[in-house]
Write a structure and sequence with these properties.
alpha+beta; 11-stranded mixed sheet; 1429 residues; 8-stranded antiparallel sheet
Amino acid sequence: MHRCATALLLAALTFVHAHPFLSTPNSECPLPTRLGVRCPVVCAQSPSLCPSALTDSTTAKCISDSTKDLCVDGSCAQKGSCATDLASACSCSTTGFVLTTAEESASTTYYPCSASDFYVVNVTYSEDPYLIAETPDLPIWIQCLSSAGVNSSIFEGGVVINECNIVPSTRVKNPLAPEFLIVYVIMAIELVIIASYYCVKSVSKRTGGYQKLEEIDGLGSRTTASLAKNGTSFGTFDMELKKPDSLILRDFEYGQLRFAGFTRSILGSAAYVSTIVTTIIWMALLTVLVLDYYAVFYRFNFRQESELLFNDHELLSTVFIVSWHFVFVWIIGIKVTEDKQQTWFGRETDLGSATFVLIEKKLLEPVSIANIGPVAQLVKRIESKFRKVLHSEYSRSCVPVKTTDNGVRYIEFECVRYVYNDLSAEFEPYSFAIGPTAADLHQRATGLSASEARRRLALVGENSIAFPVDSFAAAIVKEFSGFFYVYQMMTLWIWMYYGYYYMGIVILLVIVVSGIAKVRVHVLAQRRVLSIASFTSHIRVRRDGDWVIVNSHELVPGDVIEVTSNNQMPIPVDAILIDGGIVCDEASLTGEALPIVKFAIKNDATIIYDRSTDAVKNNSLFAGCYVLETQPSEKSKPVIAVVTATGAMTSKGRLVKDILFPSKVSFVFHEHLKVVFCLLLGWGIVMLVLSMLFLGTNGTDAWFYGMFSISQVLSPLLPAVLVIGQSVASIRLAKKGILCVDLDRITLSGKVKVFCFDKTGTLTKEGLDFLAVQPAAIDKMGLVETDYESFPKPLRCAMLCCHSVTIVGTRPVGNFVDVEMFRVTNAKLEKDDSCKIHPTTNGDKEILVINRFEFVHSNAYMTVVVQDSADGRIYVYIKGSFEKIREICDPKSVPKDASQVSNMHASEGCYVLGFARRELPRGTTIQEAAALTRRSIEQKNSIEFLGLCLFRNELKSDTQDALHELRTGGCRNVMITGDNVHTAVYVARKCGLIESRGYAENVLVVTGDVDSSGDVVWTRADNNSVIDDSALNEFRSMGKHESGKAIEIAITGKAFNALLSGGRMRDLLFDTRVFARMTPADKVACVRLHMERAITGMCGDGGNDAGALKAAHSGIALSEAESSVVAHFSSRSRSLFACAELLRESRCALDVSFASYKYLIMYGEVLALMNLIQYYFTVNMSQAMWILIDGSTIPLSWAMTQARPAKHLAATRPTARLLGPETLISVMGIMLVNLLFGIGAVVMLFGERWHNGNWFQCNEFDSRYYDLRRWWELADNFEGEVTGIVIVFQIVNAAAIFSIGNIYRSGFWRNWAFVTIYVGILGLLSFLTLADPNTVSCLFHINCGTSDALGRLNMQTGTAYQTAFIGIPESYHSFSGHNVLPMHFRLRLWLLCVGNLGALVLFQWGIVLKFGRRFARGRYRKTWADVPL
């Protein structure tokens, strides 16, 4: 036996054992005894040496028969007839039999002494547990041999136990052994490669020079007179670095860019490839280590002494840990430097010879609100400092240098082409000057030469919106290369290695599926944009003076094209009409419901062409629109236009670019999330240290236990749950006709506090209804008249001719107002000649339109020159806004009360237009009249005011109810419109935007406008009296008191800009309800101003408010037009309830996201704290229990996201502060309650040592006798069972606790998916806790034991447990052979878990949702009060 003891001692000295922390289990109890242990089969070098007690009857009979031989496989054969190729039943040549060496085991042949383990003994553990920790079955073997009467001489003479050493007797611990060298060599080789390349690069840099980053300021512009390339002159061109304005989107800039040139180098490319190869090798090595843990490579051990490549598990684990840390650092390093790798492995050179260019774009600060909170502000400051330290204030992109057929070098970045300029040695955006006057445009009617077109094509590129669409595979790689995915991957490596691959695979599937769902939304959104951006057609273009047909991709700025009607193919370019007119459909681009009439720009040198203004809107064609009808200036003559922009520079191109590269928004939820991740990671590291301390070991296994704690505290499922919640909300919104193009905006929309609305088409119906006219009398305005036939003839004539209506098919098309006004006249318009108007009432004669000057926003009126065939006289009629008409009319013709009357009509919701007329001198011919310029016609003081024309824009039927729901839902509703301020105030009163305590009459409305001197003038709407600033402030102060009269301010766009520039607008912002006469740029500025103070939503039709929709935190377009894609949400329904529906789903999604996050955090904290208790006793849970925990967490997390939104909007919004008082009180309180109940369960268990028959006395688990690596065997005890039951109950109950609440979502009892899963799991847990031993409980190692142990328990306690059923274990890793709790204790334990649930419900419902929210509201009351409803 001395040799046995020696071998055992050597094994124990190298074994990483665990010892109880602070106390020793069963310290006052007799030596532990395991009852009814079956002895293993013994083998002998000769059958005659088999001990009789350990030899079964069949084998003994064979041995005693002199005519028979016992074969090596245990069979009995005739003397001398045993086959030589039989497989031995006793073979341990690799690791050796237990208590022997491999050499001794391989030196001879052994014969089995029995066919099975039949001999039963009781084993008393008298040896020091530390000496038998490596071989926990040693006492069994010794007791079996001793009970069988095997003496040492016989044992040493050739009898062995037929069990092999798990660990070889020769353990390798040398850190320079081949197992470790493979790790060192991989890293060393790569470091040598990188270092060598760095040295060569440094030397080359010092000797070869370096082209510094060339910076282009996005705010400036530069014009270069000429560009030479290979001796070729390229003429004059403009390089505009400021993003051009467009019809739809304005006020956006390219930003600051920096360029640096690089070329590929063989050495650099080789070094770069080496990093990829090294990464693959690291992944392969980890794979081999994981598979080796499960002895997959048992045939390939080079020492031939173990079933493992790395010799034994301790050594294997050491190599895995070392490799894991190397891989983690390596992957993080690659991730941190990924945007610098391509340039670092390239050779720096000048831009002129570069093969690829590094472009650094200045990162803009994300849009954030003022009350984002101190924590989020701290995070932003830290991030900003880190960016400066790490020089990461710029985003970095590498783009290849391309060359055209004629040698022009260029790059493309964010849809814009940059051409290399030899003179400045820089890449610069290229655009051609078109104009600058209308006369210059007409001079281009001859078109370009073919050579000039080719030259321009080389400089500006094809007429296509080229942007790289991610393939599904590329999008997958981009998505799964994020930092948190790296953490998830490294966590799953540990799970896969350490015997937990079951749930590792499940978690991997969940992560992959959620990531793919996010990628799918991204790819579909890109493809949707691509479908908008991609179109091609064939166009007639004038080249070298002749008309030729070319592909639309070959069009360039300056081309002259023929415009034809084609309802199936959109216009491929932006262009300006120079001959003829068209009727086009801009609904897909601007959301305009009716077709628009476009006219050729006048051949007038005084007209300045500026495509960024609305002055040429009626002459401009925009890419993406459809031509319904052409109107040639002469029969058989084509309608022609000059191309002004192509590709990404068109209005559609900028629309696509703004979609692809949106501005970032800072959300307090995301800022807090960064802090929470850091805190959880730090807490996980603390848990790692505590785990090692409580386990009482410094071996590799303690590291694994600690890393499990980190992965539990910082769950890999956290991002997946957020994505799933957003995806569910997105799907539900899509079913309701609301499409989402940005999932992150869903949770952000849940915090919307201010909702801005456009008026026309959003709050009101699309069209206008004609109401009446009011002619001007001598001293005052006349009576309002509604019957067209009774209108004065000048007003009838004005209505007949002062419009831009044309006939398409059988219906009139044009502006809403024009079409409605012309409809009232019942006149007829010739389809082929819109210049002749045929009245049908009052005997009015035909009117001939000689010239038409279209409506211009800067003038706010249109003019026509006509001849009345009744008298042959020529008249000029003008129609426009009353304010502008009044300015140009003879003051004597304008009644004194005209302004008052106009304001009165506007305040009653009327859309007010003014009519004016001028009679040209007698004798003026049609030719002379046609030649008159607009300036000469519209001479002030020569025009007679005729009267007012009134229209009314009716509210949508559901507007008032929708706004009421939003207001009662805690949203401040604001109107931003381009309409008259008085009309806007009327609509605001009627729809409920302006009201106090339910009545609009309780509100004092003050309007603000700018006078002729530029000062803001305040006017009371009730009596039109002017008040000064002090009176306004007094009214504002009084309005804040309950007894005072509420005040609402309505301002014009001019007043808004004046107040903004004077620094007063921010103070008046939340007293201002109506913003009128706002341009598209003003709308963007107004929305951004609100965004500084609160999360702001914008609702419009996607037309001229597209910029504001994109700028807002949450933009929803009530339109399916292409321009609506810039909005984060678009609704098929034009109902305003879409906004309420969006907020309901978003608040629900935000609340569910919070609940899911808190649940997963609680999952980690329950496991962390309860595992500390388990580690104190060095116990664990079975594999099935761990699978139950994670297997229930996944479906519960999913089911929580299925909660439906509340039926009505609550007056409050869900919190978005992960570190806010409500969240902290909830999480910390529940952690404390759970910890107290967990400790209570353990105290209750250990109290059984002295109560209820003292059944737990001397049944404490002593980990010193067990192998810590086999963690699943540490569950077959009472401590692991009780704590495991409490853990699962607490984790499952946490899901229910965080599902409580029906303010923003329906109660969890209405979430049938959750209720079904939760009740099912709770029922299973209750069954496991209360049931007697059975198949299911034994699967989870709860209330289970071996058949012999259960039989003994029945005899000792009088119970009647079944001792034979499917799944009953053959062995149990405890001295008693079972962990069956007495029924009275099971019942008390179950009641304790139920009481734990009750305490959590009372805490969450009573303290958190009641007291906690009141406290939070008190804490942030000032913030909320800053945003009055």
